[in-house]
Structures are given as structure tokens and as C-alpha cells.
Amino acid sequence: MKIAFFVIVIAVVSSAGAASKVTYDVTSFGAKGDGYTDSTKAFLSAWSYACNSTKSAVINVPSGTYLLATAITFAGERCKSSSIMMRIYGTLVAPSNYNAIATSGDWIRFHRVSHVTISGGTLDGQGASLWSCKTSGKSCPSGATTLGIYNSNNIVISGLKLVNSQMFHILIDACANVKLQGVTISASGVSPNTDGIHLISSTDVTIVSTKIATGDDCISIGPGNTNLWIEKVACGPGHGISIGSLGWQLEEPGVQNITVTTVTFRGTQNGVRIKTWARASHGFVTGVSFQHVTMINVKNPIIIDQRYCPDNNNCPNQAAGVKIKNVLYEDIHGTSDTQVAVKLDCSQGNPCAGIRLQDVNLNYTSVDKPALSSCAYAAGSASGILRPTSCL
Ligand SMILES: *[C@@H]1O[C@H](CO)[C@@H](O)[C@H](O)[C@H]1NC(C)=O
Ligand SMILES: *[C@@H]1O[C@H](CO)[C@@H](O)[C@H](O)[C@H]1NC(C)=O
Ligand SMILES: *[C@@H]1O[C@H](CO)[C@@H](O)[C@H](O)[C@H]1NC(C)=O
């Protein structure tokens, strides 16, 4: 009796171990890594099985190139699985005719998922033909974000490579607890609107060990983001890391507790930027640290721009409503491609407060001319090495 009971217990434990994970391979649902067979339906079937599984599920994508010819949504609201890992060894490629996805918002969308990991692989947005349409001045669709994640939590994106998105490469919207690590993003330095990672209304997002080269912001931080951690990011070419644009809406959630540390900008239009519309808004920015930043030939290494009003349109009173408070710039060093290396251009109606400059060491690339700083409606303190001299 005793021995039999013991054996049964062992059997249950080991089968529970083996059965705690179930793997679905997209090729067994008809996906083909041949580069031209549309695998959208196969991916959706694999997702449906993974989502319905009562166990942890793995969706395996072997090496090969899989065409996803239309926009695809992985919806999670009815999932039973405790977690889903999409393990990609191959490349997912968008259709070469941009019209097939360009008005869909996103090419690959995750909606209301939780405990989802996307690991490895490449997402190729094939955006070049849409970029040429846009730069030719013709009227063109706005384009699709390559990977959009909405209303989701406990997400990990690891070792993923994104290339040539039509528009944003990654969008994180209304999510909590998201970790991006070892992600690589690349698109031409002159491709329009190809932001690397755009964040809206999300909390506890971490971006580490990531390399971004695009034609727009490497990372853009929209309204409503809190507890964001950005570390070990290499940016360039591109427009830098930007908080904003903020303050388009009158009622707009604020941006709070943002850390950007150990980041390098190479040949970018901006380094660390905060940008708000010059219009009325109850939005705010508070508790931001930019630390240990290397600037290499950056046009505007440190910039707050509260006068954003393209074509002088839609900014009736020109004083930005967004209040910027408690921003630290610490150990920011390297070279500026313009003479004004530090520009703090705040709102006349809502001056910046609590700006701290500590050990800022920036030289103008043009020999024999000193770097300068320029302040408007900015208050705070400065300490340590201050090159250019502080204007606070
Ligand atoms: C998953 O469950 C839903 C109902 O909850 C059902 O409509 C769908 O067919 C199921 N998919 C699979 C692959 O079993
Ligand atoms: C600020 O955000 C970090 C994560 O980026 C978090 O660890 C920390 O607890 C947050 N601080 C507050 C006061 O919420
Ligand atoms: C800027 O130039 C000064 C004077 O040549 C030099 O001492 C300093 O180290 C330079 N700063 C950086 C970040 O290279």
C-alpha cells in the first residue's frame, strides 16, 4: 500500500511538470516560411489554441520568412492560458504593397492580453515604398504601426528586431508592467514618422539594452505615462528621446516619474527633449531624471521646447499650459552640433520649476566657439561642472 501510494504521487508530479506547458507550432496550422504564402490564418489559429489552453502555451515560429498579408489582431480578453510565449526564430514580413495594411492602425496588434512574451525574431514592415510616397508630397495613407500593444499587462518583448516600419515600430498604449529588453529597431534616418517606441498612458514600462535607429524619435513619451525606466539605449540616427508632444488636449493626463539613464545619442536631431504645444492644457510633467548621457554630434542635446506650434496653427494664446517641474540633468557629456547646447524654453504662463543641472559637460563641435545655454521662464539650480555656463 505504502509503496503504491508513493509511486502514484511521483507520477502525478512528473506529469504535471511535463504538461504545464503546451507548444503550438504555426507550421502545423499551415504557416509557410517561404516568404510569399499568407500565414495570417495559421497564426490566428495557433493563437486561438494557445489562448484557449488551460496551461502555459508556447507559439513556436520556426526559422523562415512568413508573410502576414493583412493586419492581424491577437485578442486576449477570453484567454484561459496563464501565459503565452510567442517564440520567433524566423521573420514575419508585411506585404510589399503598403495599401494592404496602411490604414489599419497596426500591422500586428495585441489587445487585452496578459502575461505574454514575444521573444526573438524579426518583424519587417517593408515601409520603404510608403516613405517614398510620403516624401514625394503625394497624398498617402498614414501607415501602420508594426507592433501595437493595447490595454495589456505583464508583457515581455525580448531580443526582437524590427525593421522598416511604415510608421511607429512599437506602440505601447494603456499597458502596465511591460519590459522591453535587447530589442533592435532600424529604419532609414530620413524615413518619416518611423518612431522607434511610442508610449501612451502606460505605467511601469522598462526599456533596457535597446538599439534604435530611425527617421523620427527613438522613444517618444506621450501623455499619461508613469514609472518609466529607460536604461542602456543607443539612439541614432533619429530625433532623440522625447517627452511629448504634450498639451494638445485641455484635459490630459500628466507624465510622472521617468528615468533615462546610461544612454548614447549619435548624430541625432535632439538628445533629451521635453516638448509641449503652445496651447492651454492641464497636463504636466513631473519627476524626470536624465542621467549618464553621452551626446555625439547632437543638434540639441538638452532641450525643453514649450513653443511647439507648427505653422503657427491651432495655438490661440501661445502660452503652453503644461507645467514642467523637477527635472534633473546629471552627467550629460559630449558634443553639440549647434552652439546652443542647452535650451530651456519654458512657458510664460507656467514657468518650469525645479530644473537641476549637475555635471553638464558639452562642447560645440565647431572649433573656437564655446557652447552656450539659453533659458526662458526656467527656474532651478546648477552644480558641478557646467559647460556651457548655466543660464538658470
Ligand atoms: C476557443 O474558445 C472559443 C470560445 O471561448 C471558441 O469560439 C473557439 O473556437 C476556440 N478555439 C479553439 C481553437 O478551440
Ligand atoms: C518610479 O518608477 C520606478 C520604476 O521606473 C519605480 O521603481 C519607483 O517605485 C517609482 N517611484 C514612485 C515614487 O512611484
Ligand atoms: C570640452 O572641452 C574642454 C576644453 O577643451 C575639455 O576640457 C572637456 O573635457 C571637453 N568636454 C568633453 C565632454 O569632451
TrEMBL record:
Localization of this protein: Secreted, Cell wall
Keywords, in A-Z order: Cell wall, Cell wall biogenesis/degradation, Glycosidase, Hydrolase, Secreted, Signal
A GO biological-process term: cell wall organization
Chain segments annotated as coiled-coil in the UniProt record: none
Keyword Cell wall biogenesis/degradation set for record: yes
InterPro entries reported for this sequence: Glyco_hydro_28, PbH1, Pectin_lyas_fold, Pectin_lyase_fold/virulence
Superkingdom to which the source organism belongs: Eukaryota
Stored Gene3D superfamilies: Single-stranded right-handed beta-helix, Pectin lyase-like
Protein name: Polygalacturonase
Species the sequence originates in: Artemisia annua
